[in-house]
Structure prediction request, 166 residues.
Amino acid sequence: MQKRIGVVFVSRRNTLRSILAEACLRHLDRERRFAAYSCGQPGQVGRTVHPAAATALAIAAIAVPPTPPRSWDDLVRLSSLRADFVISLDPAVEELEPRWPGQPAMAEWAYPDLAATGAEAGDMSHSATLMLLSLRRRLELLVSLPMAGTDKSALNADVRDLAHLR
Prediction:
């Protein structure tokens, strides 16, 4: 059996951006080549998935991830965690992140912190849906990348370069 490629998505609260990314990758990964996780900064993690994330995922017919929001400390403690890529969706927490087991490749795909804007529910749901569409485009390309037999540094550069898609 071929090992799955571990991808961790990081945002501050793990209630919106990283939840959208984890759910979308799980949805797109028909061949089950990836193990998708999401997490947030300890002490900042929300208790539940943000309603705008749940709405955006429902509109796209994508399931909410099975695990509740969690901190990166919780994730690092998982003995089963083997991350190949850590994708930070929040540049503000990137330098605070832990040393990830196995020294995964790091990438920054910056997205605005919608939950911190205080926008009205309808506006926030619309913005979350647009964010999900943007993430989906990047993740469709990630899923299509040849992972086996590829130069690791070139693959890492490709994942980092996906941040420049609009």
